[in-house]
Amino acid sequence: MPRKLRHHLFNNKLLFMVKIAMLGSGFIGRFYADSIQGYRSQDKIVSIYSRREESAKKFAEDYKVAHWTVNMEEAIANKEVDIVCISLPNNLHEAAVMLCCKYKKAVMSTKPLGRNAAEARRMLKAVEAASIFNGYLEDLVYTPKFLKAHQSVKSGALGRILWAKSREAHPGPHSEWFWDLEQAGGGCILDLGCHCVEIGRSYIGKNIKPIEVMCWADTQVKPIEAEDHAIGLVKYENGAIGQFEVSWTFRGGLDLRDEVMGSEGTIWINNFLRTGFDLFTTGKGADYVAEKAETNTGWQFPVGDELNELGYNHMFMDMFDALEAGRQPKETFYDGYVVNSVLDAAYRSAKSKIWEPVRLDIWRGEEGLKKDSNFTEYDDEHYFVKEETTHYGTKKLILKNKASGKIIEKLIEDAG
Amino acid sequence: MPRKLRHHLFNNKLLFMVKIAMLGSGFIGRFYADSIQGYRSQDKIVSIYSRREESAKKFAEDYKVAHWTVNMEEAIANKEVDIVCISLPNNLHEAAVMLCCKYKKAVMSTKPLGRNAAEARRMLKAVEAASIFNGYLEDLVYTPKFLKAHQSVKSGALGRILWAKSREAHPGPHSEWFWDLEQAGGGCILDLGCHCVEIGRSYIGKNIKPIEVMCWADTQVKPIEAEDHAIGLVKYENGAIGQFEVSWTFRGGLDLRDEVMGSEGTIWINNFLRTGFDLFTTGKGADYVAEKAETNTGWQFPVGDELNELGYNHMFMDMFDALEAGRQPKETFYDGYVVNSVLDAAYRSAKSKIWEPVRLDIWRGEEGLKKDSNFTEYDDEHYFVKEETTHYGTKKLILKNKASGKIIEKLIEDAG
Amino acid sequence: MPRKLRHHLFNNKLLFMVKIAMLGSGFIGRFYADSIQGYRSQDKIVSIYSRREESAKKFAEDYKVAHWTVNMEEAIANKEVDIVCISLPNNLHEAAVMLCCKYKKAVMSTKPLGRNAAEARRMLKAVEAASIFNGYLEDLVYTPKFLKAHQSVKSGALGRILWAKSREAHPGPHSEWFWDLEQAGGGCILDLGCHCVEIGRSYIGKNIKPIEVMCWADTQVKPIEAEDHAIGLVKYENGAIGQFEVSWTFRGGLDLRDEVMGSEGTIWINNFLRTGFDLFTTGKGADYVAEKAETNTGWQFPVGDELNELGYNHMFMDMFDALEAGRQPKETFYDGYVVNSVLDAAYRSAKSKIWEPVRLDIWRGEEGLKKDSNFTEYDDEHYFVKEETTHYGTKKLILKNKASGKIIEKLIEDAG
Amino acid sequence: MPRKLRHHLFNNKLLFMVKIAMLGSGFIGRFYADSIQGYRSQDKIVSIYSRREESAKKFAEDYKVAHWTVNMEEAIANKEVDIVCISLPNNLHEAAVMLCCKYKKAVMSTKPLGRNAAEARRMLKAVEAASIFNGYLEDLVYTPKFLKAHQSVKSGALGRILWAKSREAHPGPHSEWFWDLEQAGGGCILDLGCHCVEIGRSYIGKNIKPIEVMCWADTQVKPIEAEDHAIGLVKYENGAIGQFEVSWTFRGGLDLRDEVMGSEGTIWINNFLRTGFDLFTTGKGADYVAEKAETNTGWQFPVGDELNELGYNHMFMDMFDALEAGRQPKETFYDGYVVNSVLDAAYRSAKSKIWEPVRLDIWRGEEGLKKDSNFTEYDDEHYFVKEETTHYGTKKLILKNKASGKIIEKLIEDAG
């Protein structure tokens, strides 16, 4: 973090305003802008780059941005700019990052970081060589529900984490470039799986090494080259399992659910389609309901505050607070690189039909972990298997004799 | 809005920072402070008043507040202060408001505005006479779910609103003054009903006059003088019905639900206990889960971001944006006064056991509305009653003959 | 129970087959028949009476009934018949019951028993004078969820019952006679409120006397004389409150929910619209989904086994087991009479706008109960108000001094 | 179906009573007996075999069974017996089936049919050689929710089925033999996966051939040889994917959920832990709540009628109706054999870490199916990719040019 950031004493308060260059004025760029300039934010987008002039102008007008351009380098080089926010199609991330390195500008990039691990590694090496702040905009590990759930997991409420599943499925993305393999670099594995992998990895522990991946993928419905449906398993060094379920063929809206199993507990999170808000309408007043809703009559399930529920607010808060404090944000290009490496293994596995190793040239977590023991001592002679309450209200223990290996049942007093 | 508020050109951005004096350092004052200074807020609490020195100091330390005091007037008079935020027990609101009038300071007050309509009316008259900005901190009409639901209602998605129910129930408040009738001014009707009445009124239309109230109230469980459980109906001039269900005897957490019925649709909102976040734990890691949760083992239902889900963020955003723009906020002392008037009628009804009129000396909405017709024309001879799909897949109409009043059935072709 | 019922040793099993005369071949008659002859039932409808010949014939064919008739007395008098099942419009119940008395036939009647308490009382007196088995077909206190919840309540899991709410709302009934005040005797209060009152009464205790009723009712949407929306409160002698919410104007399907609050617990039951079965369809395969579903595209919420979920199976099991055992069923004409008496008070209250007493000439439960105390002792000097866990993880007690009445807070050790 | 079953004209009704010999008096045998003799059933258990005399006697007493024995052959040979119901540990199924063949008795067996496909195939061949009625007691394709969902799937409401996931997870079985690899033949894959595989297969189509299986399995928590957690994918010849998630390490109760994705719709079923019944209790009245519930304080989620919700009632209805009608039940030993074959492949895959082929010597469904096309024509020049409603309320189409393969966007008029 070599560059000193601007602090000001304003109105007797020490204030740190972040000034952003936004690259890309599409769907995601606008979501980001709504969040960055939302609430009572002190931060400001000061330059907007778009490939199309009319889009750049429109964005500048809508978000009161002083400077617009169709020249990416100009936006990045702008003296006003503290940090560059990349909201471009996947195939343009690397070039944008290299320009940020050239101008020593802090940078944060939308997900996935690269179209593959090779791209991501080059970006990671470049930003570290240039010693610039780098943030990876993985919003779904910043949702309010995730943050609180993750805190519970870290506090031990679930015991040892055994399995973390993340599912993202919807009827397909809204911009044409997603459907083009060259620009996007992949289908729903890359587009949605990147979220799921980082969610699973976060619950299991970001310092636990992902070892190998098994993945099924197919193009079941859409007339495209890339996969529109995939399921994958990610094995970690400590024996925990991550799971992702991703699809562009789901009908009914945006299905965004996570589940975690631990030896002492369970978490179920529904981020979007069932959040305690049900609305039925016979059809009058057919307005925009929510991202990827499929109907506007009958039962609807809107989300109160999409920007907050999808994690954008807490994500940018972490990014800018980190920039202010001169620390790293929770998610960096390194995380983006790890995610790309896991997804690369998933793509290889979908073709080879075997478990494929995760190739991590750069790994900064723990090494050499072993699976935790599955033997819990009950007494000198037995291991504990299970406690059971019967229909009759009495309790019994199921135990395993250490020497003989034999399973026995033992009645215990009614605790009722 | 006589007083010009301070705008500054900061770092090339026109910035408006709001500086707040917080009165009260208890549970609600801290919630407010977390919200006001949360996210990337440009706003700042600059003075804290508490009745107890140690509380004032602790608050000042926790929230980095420059000035603390045990003298309320000192906090209000402080030159730095743009707006005063009242987070005091109910019996102290009026005195605080009068001091704000004296110093011509913008003021916003927690709910309920007064312990009764007389207090509320005096406060309303005072702030209007003093021409100061006044905001009523009714957070539950600022929850993200409410805001979106309300927008749907206004867009006509539910047709004509027939009924709006709001329920708030929990095992009782956390500070001792709530349980003392003199300080609180009432029990759960005043503490919780104020939320419910304003929610119902907002769905039905804030310009529709509440006419009369029927209320049952009792002290069923707690050893107190005030009521710990109540149910009320509020009749509006256009025939719509508001309903509140409030209790300090509910077991299981904080039950916060709203329901709306319209002629064309339905809304169900669960704000707290079922929001798509389920957590089971055998008991390790017993941390604080959520406001008013009763257990920390077994199934838990945490809320991701309480400040946002409870409406605090959007409420203060409206308050400060309004202050900045020189407009009124959505909720003003006038609304607080209307709510107190409805609750007064509820208290009278609980004693008299009849429908009690709502006495509104000050009314700024519509007058003389009548109930909407319940006759929908089907054809020249019939009114429409209902369309029905039978087991067999055919459809039939139920109609009423205009002349004879006779109900008939008419089979129509299968639309299947 | 004077008449000896037929038992037979069949295939070495002592078998008791019930033979039923069904009066009425409409919507409810068919539901009943599906249940009575469902699963591996040993029971059989042996005669069907309908006012229209074609309906009687069709029913006889569909359910393989040996005898059909358009003469009610003929069906009842039929020698084969053990019990008569009344599934007729409300205005025909009394005449049917009188015929059963004449022929000393066991009888069970659909709900409500009468159009008012006077009719119900005459029926009750007649069946008791004739000493015939009489069952009241209130299916919603036989739903599997109710049965299990009721068992929990009786076992003390909820402590003292404070409030029991039952809600039934849908877009209106499917047969024309419901909409005709003369035949039906009332609107949604009578049609739906009869369920709600008996549900509330069952949770609170069928031996606890309902004392008075407050009710709001209106005709908000439908072009009818009877009410299409009503809300009522039923006060019981021990201070518990029953609540009913009924409507024929609800949009979205069949809303059937119950809630119970006790001093130690809470019950929430959703019987129909949210039972763990969600289906989304873009619209192909537009079949019959569920009773009173409004749409067949978008999100649907079917019920797995309507007959079972609505209580029909367990209701007829109780009726026939009782008949076999020579005991009374759980619900008798006496219960139907009590319900009608409560509803009569509701109708009076809706007009008089005051709490109306429940007039019960016949009352077989407890008398002279008082409200339970709301004082729980903490120690010699204090009553217990509440235990609270703070943000900081410590616990505090809120207590009331017996002598001074003052509320105090007392910190207790962290149980964490 | 060679043996003529006994029909009788009883009380003028043609009655068919089924007389059952129950083998096994444990947890599942009692569940079965509760169902078989439940409601107003005409059927009867006439003989009970248990390995332990006291268990046999107790069962005979509880269920009023005329004959008990500790000699399995005696129960089967009993002249009264129409059909034998096998509720024994997995390692005893085959011997019991062979005795049924010897005595030409109709037989139905609990799940899984065999410990592996070889056992299952021998049983299948034996019952077919003996020409005896054979039923496979896979209750979870008989749950009311499954039956209705399956009907929707068959009617086309979901379009082409793409994926069917079934999840069964709980804290581990209640009898000691499950934990012993020799008796059980496997861990949670065999115990729970057998349900999931048949559920998935039923949604996808029982005539569609399962081709290969990928499975991860591990022993993460329990001190046993068998797996306590597994996830598997089953690929079908038409490209559809079945998925099973099974565990004996789940905390929080019995998690029993199914999900189906089709090209036109979605199904989500929760069979147990969230069915519209929530109960909170502070802990008084600590009774038995539900199968595999872990706590009896705090929030509970009971199931109304476990026998019905778990499919037992509809399963035995199908079995006995089939026996009566001389037809096959929906589930036969053939289905049990197919399931065992899929599970064998899962076990092989968990070891080999590759997709393992399903070896089906006996296959009676379709052969040679191909994956459906993923190209939907939009017009002569384009394939349809997606229709999208933007924030602004306008609609756009995403299309693919047939010749160039290029993805384009096309605005269409607002349908609002």
Distance between the terminal alpha carbons of chain A, to the nearest Å?
A: 61 Å
Residues in helices of chain A, as a percent range: 25-40%
What is the typical, i.e. mean, pLDDT of chain A?
A: 91
Which quaternary structure do these chains form? homotetramer
Low-pLDDT segments of chain A = 1-5
> Strand content of the residues of chain A, in percent?
25-35%
What's the story with the biggest beta sheet of chain A?
A: 7 strands, mixed
Description:
4 copies of one chain form a homotetramer. The first copy, chain A, is an alpha/beta fold. Chain A is about 30% helix and about 25% strand. In chain A, the strands form 5 sheets. Chain A has a 7-stranded mixed β-sheet with strand order 14-13-9-12-11-10-17. In chain A, helix 8 packs across helix 11. The termini of chain A are far apart. The model of chain A is unreliable at about 1-5 (pLDDT under 50). Chains in contact: A-B, A-C, A-D, B-C, B-D, C-D. Chains A and D meet through strand 9, strand 10, strand 11, strand 12 and strand 13 of A and strand 9, strand 10, strand 11, strand 12 and strand 13 of D. Strand 15 (about 275-280) of chain C pairs antiparallel with strand 14 of chain D.
Task: Offer a quick outline of the entry.
The structure is a homotetramer of 416-residue chains. Chain A has 416 residues and is α/β, with parallel strands linked by helices.
Notable characteristics:
homotetramer; 416 residues; alpha/beta; 7-stranded mixed beta sheet; 6-stranded parallel beta sheet; 11 helices; 29% helix; 27% strand; globular; disordered N terminus
